[in-house]
Structure formats: structure tokens, C-alpha cells
Amino acid sequence: MRGLRASSLLLCGVVLIQLLAVQIDAQRPKTHWKTLSGFSPRVIARGGFSGLFPDSSLDAYNFAMLTSVADAVLWCDLQLTKDGAGICFPDLTMSNASNVETVYPKGQSTYPVNGVPTPGWFTIDFSLRALTNVSLIRGILSRSDKFDGNGYTISTVQTINKEMKPQGLWLNVQHDAFYAQHNLSMSNFLISVTKTVIVDFISSPEVNFFRKIAGRFGREGPSFVFRFLEKEQFEPTTNRTYGSILSNLTFVKTFASGILVPKSYVLPLDDKQYLLPSTSLVQDAHKAGLEVFVSGFANDVDIAHDYSFDPVSEYLSFMDNGNFSVDGVLSDFPITASASVECFSHVARNATKQVDFLVISKNGASGDYPGCTNLAYEKAINDGADVIDCSVQMSSDGKPFCSSSIDLGNTTMVAQSPLRNRSTSVPEISSVNGIYTFTLTWPEIQTLTPAISNPYSRRFNMFRNPNERNSGKLLSLSEFLNLAKNSTTLSGVLISVENAAYLREKQGLDVVKAVLDALTETGYSNRTTTKVMIQSTNSSVLVDFKKQSQYETVYKVEETIRDILDSAIEDIKKFASAVVIGKSSVFPVVDGFVTGQTNVVERLQKSQLPVYVELFQNEFVSQPFDFFSDATVEINSYVTGPGINGTITEFPFTAARYRRNRCLASKETLSYMAPVQPGGLLEVVSPGSIPPAEAPNPVFTDADVTEPPLPPVTAKAPTPTPGTPSTTAPAPSGQTQLTLSLLLSVFAMVLASLLLM
Description:
Layout: H1 2-27, E1 42-46, H2 58-67, E2 73-80, E3 86-88, H3 100-103, E4 109-113, E5 116-120, E6 135-136, E7 152-153, H4 157-164, E8 168-172, H5 176-181, H6 186-193, E9 201-204, H7 207-213, E10 223-227, E11 234-235, E12 240-241, H8 242-246, H9 249-253, E13 258-262, H10 281-287, E14 291-297, H11 311-319, E15 328-331, H12 334-344, E16 358-361, H13 374-382, E17 387-394, E18 400-402, H14 442-446, H15 457-460, H16 477-485, E19 492-497, H17 500-507, H18 511-521, E20 531-536, H19 539-548, E21 552-556, E22 563-564, H20 566-573, E23 578-582, E24 589-590, E25 593-594, H21 600-606, E26 611-616, H22 631-640, E27 646-649, H23 652-660, E28 699-700, H24 702-705, H25 734-756
GO molecular function: glycerophosphodiester phosphodiesterase activity
Protein name: glycerophosphodiester phosphodiesterase
InterPro entries: GP_PDE_dom, PLC-like_Pdiesterase_TIM-brl
């Protein structure tokens, strides 16, 4: 019953939102598209919002209508039951997307499907009444199972039409020949159902199916769309490959008005998942009078590296590339398709910003290039970042440079370099050994090859831009500052300083002085056009900077917190003019679902402290299910919900593009550009799947802010140059001692040979 109640609640929202969407849609100015009709591409919701809810469930269809354009088309994979009822179910066999195996454990059969013996629980073995006991569940195991216990029933075409009243309905007939072999007629069912249900599109990958239904619907009947499968597959009724049929579009035009093709038919990929030049299919089909619909869009699958894990970029490459536009997209996440069509298409890079917040890079565009390299920073600037950042590290010879980690093993290929034996133990920094920046000279560090960050490679096998995984070079702080100074679009730089106390006490390195000197040497002390922000998790560092300069200081709260005391805010205001917090300190997350919203942003902003939030990434696995595997939905929810002042992101392009989307200029909130309701999706989770409550996050207090002053710089004994014996400073590790011993032996041998000469 919970699933039915949730559906009813969602349906009420659907009605209200759709009325609003229709009004707004009527007021929208018409834009010329390079589609066959000149109108915007269709958004087709495959099984409803099947990227989140079980495919073809009422909630999936409800939610698709709630979050999509007003004229979204609902897609139904049409199957027939034993008694000839037409149901919406994603496949011919039922075990993958329902609990039929549990309900009817002895219901398995084996039938030939396109000549291949196929075992499974087939719809033709069950009456419609028998299927009332079967519930829909997720069909793709990588998606959430939290809605599987809602008892979603299998619906008929008539039920979908009655409950949803969709603006468009698409019936896909995948296996007409199979049903005909079992004395079930798809064509008869379609002719019958269209007497009471308006069907807008009928698709099938079988040529003979269209020959059977030709002329049986009249001039006002549905549009026929021929569905192409993979090019090497054989069309079952002509024994020709789909690739060969593709070469004769005039033949397709004799029985269909459109084609539905996989994405690779239009934008093929190479074996490394990079885009190849587009084919001429869309233009060729349009010349033949055929509309082109494209299937396979989903936010939670790997897409071409060219898109930087951004599904909006993928949609736009099919519909707004300057050369052609497909006529429709078949999507598991229709909210993203809708926003791509209505909000982000035909928007120039220099378009007016519709919302004001800072786009701050995280180690440059580190989602596309190795972080803190010249290429990462240049891309961040070109992508529209307002502020680029440098996490300052110190070399052993006192050179400040940019690196996301003090351990070079995390950011470079040092482990594969001649310097791989320079590993040391520094308990004050890490419990594991590392090759630390302060153990190498700047010339040595410059020889290292940078490495791109891959935070989701081990668990999810997701890799960032492999062609550029070792591209670029590390920059000194001065080089970084000069790069930023020469930009005409940046408004500022953010310099992050950590481990200052350790570097002063143990390494004799004053990172505060090094940063101030670099700013002075590069002319920033007298500049008023480029804002300088100094960030640290240590209040003592910011106090030190504040004493010696007028630069803006930013306090970073490392902990995930649920609240912050007034006394802590007052302490922060003494040394900082802005605050950085983590995403979960705004929207707490449990088991992949947002549980609510804190008031941390509101409290800080009331005290005149801007709030910047990190870390925004494009990979869908970095986001709670509430954001629908779409980085743009996530950004929108933080900006239009709690109203943060800036995003700190590894993918600046996505955040910068979001500010220009024209839907933000609407007087009304469009359904596909509305912020998520914190905790709302958790309300639809089946009772048995609700994650257990976790211990609440801590409250941030003034005790968390207060720190002793930075210690004075303690002079470090000079490090011996290679080949010179040391009598004062012990080697940092046994490995280093061995290296020195070998060098001394070689030196002695060379000296002896010279004396013999």
C-alpha cells in the first residue's frame, strides 16, 4: 500500500507542476532548431523516470511528468500477457525487473527468441490477473534497490493512460514475431487500444510488423518509427543487418516516418571512449524526410570522456552542436534531457549570468587534467572559473609551489621515477610513509611527471581523461600567480596553506613568508583588480596572514557539522571574511540519500560570512540519489536552495555553464530547474529499506576554532648535498642512509683512480 500512497502523493504534485509548466511553455519564445520540424527535440521518458524508480512503475511515470517538459512523451515497452492484455514492462522475460521468480518459482519456460533458445519467465505464460501478484523492481543492479519493496504493480497501457493522462505516449513493440508464434497479435491489440487511448508513436525493430499495420490507423494515427539495433545484428524478418538497412533510408521511409538509433550511429566512439567525428546520419535522414530519435541516454553510465562525466554536455552534443539536431532523445533521466533542451541549448559562452555565485576551481580543472598543472589551470580559466586555486607546498630548498597533496606520491609518478627511494615516515602528517615535498628540491620536483586524480577508479572503475592522465607541468606559486594575473576573466585567486606549524618547527620552512614574498614579487600587493584569498583549516595561519597583510582570509571547516555556535562564528569573524564547508554540512547524507538541510549556511550568512561549499564533482557516484546522477541538479539545489555563495569544483565548466542557463531568468520555477526537497526522496523509500539512523554530526564550537599561535621558525641543520658525508644530521631513513653510503663508495673509488694516474 505504501507504493500506492506514494504514487497518489506524487500524482497531486504532477498535476500542479504540469499546469504551471504548460503556462510557462506557452509563453516561451520559439527558437529555430535544426530538427526536421524546426521545433525542439522531444523528451521521451523510457519507462518513466526509470533511472531512479523501477522501470514502468506508476511512480516512475509520475516522477517523469513531475520533472520534465510539459510535452514529455512516456515510453512503454509493450508486452502481451497470456490472455492478450497489453502491459508496460521493459523486457520479454520478467525475472530481471520484477519479483516473478519469488512469486512463481516454477514458472520458468524456454522459448526460441529470434531463433535463440531463451530461458525465463515470459509474459505469455501469465494472465493479467496472475501478474497482479508480481511487483516491479529495479532492472539495473547498479541502481538503488530502496524502492523495490514498494509493491509497484505491473500496469496496462490503459491504466497508464488513465492515471497519467500524458501529453505523449510511445509504445515500443520489440518482439512482434515472437508473439505471433504464440498466437498473440500485437497489431490487433494496437488497433483495439487506439480506439480509447491516444498513441502518438509506435516503434519496432521488425520490418514485417510495419507491413502488417500499414494503413490500419488512418491519417491521424500514430507515427511509425523503425528501431535500429546494433549494426551487426540481423533484422529478424528480412535477414539483413541493421547496418545494411541503414544504407537505404528511402526504403525505411516507405513504412516509417522516423528512425530510432543508438547513440553510436550519430556520434561514434573509439576504443578508448573518446568521440570520433559525427556521422552524416541525421542530415541524411532529414533529407529522406525521416525524424531521428536517439536511444541510450542515462546519467548513471559511462559516457565519452569528452563530456567530463557531464550528461548535459552529452545531450547538447546531439541537439545543439551547430550542424544538426536530433528530433528526440530516449532517456532514463528525463529531468536532464528537459533541462538540456529548455535551459542550456542555444546559450552562448558569453551569455549573461542569471545567478551570481563564485565558481572556484579545486586544483584547477582537475577533473580533466592532473591537478595544479598549467593545463588544469588554463582549462579552468577557459571554462569560466572566477577563482583558481593553489594548494601551496614547500620544497626542501624553500620554493613554494602548487600541489594538491604534500605527499608527491598522490599527485605525481614519483613512485616510478629515480626518486622513488626517497620515502620517509612523518607521523605528524600521515600514518604511512610518503615522498614529501619538503624532502625534495624544486629542481628535483620539476622532473616529476604529474598524475591525474582518479578518486573512483578502485571502487567503480571510473577513470578521468586517460589520454591526458600525465599531461602538463607543476607550477611554482609565482608561475601560478603570473598565469592568473595575465587572465582577463578571473576575479581572484585562492591560496590554500596547510601544515604551516610542522614546516616551521620540523623543517625550518616558513610557508606564510614564502606566500607573502611571492605575492609581492608578482605584483599582487599593489593590485586591486585581482582578489587574493588565503584559505586554511588552521585559525593560527589566518591570524598570521591577517597581521602581515590585507588579503582576504577564508576559514575552512574540515569536519562535517550539523550546526555552529554563535560564539564560534564570532571567533571566526576575528580572523576570516568567508568560510568553506563540506557539502554534507549543508545536506546531510545517509546511505546515499539526503536526510534534510542544516541551518549552517543561513547562520554564517546572517553574520556576513559568505559560504563556499566543496567538493563538487561530475561523477554520478559522488552525488546522493536525490540529485538524479546529474551534477547540474546538485549545483542547482545548493544555489537555489540554501543559497551558497560559491562552489569549489574539479569541473568548473559545469558550474559556470549553470549560471548562464536561461531557465533561471524565468519568473516561475520550472519543474526541471527546481531544487530538491531535502529528505523528500527518502519519504518514498520502502519502509524496510529506510537506512538506520546514524549518530548526529557534531556542533562546531569556539573550542574547535581556537588554536595556539604559529611557532617560530626553527632552523634546520643543513641537508648534505649528494656525495658529501654528513656528521651532524642523521639520514631521514635507512634507505636514504644506504643511498649515501653507496655514493660515498663511488666517490672514494673515483678519487683513488685519479691518484693512481
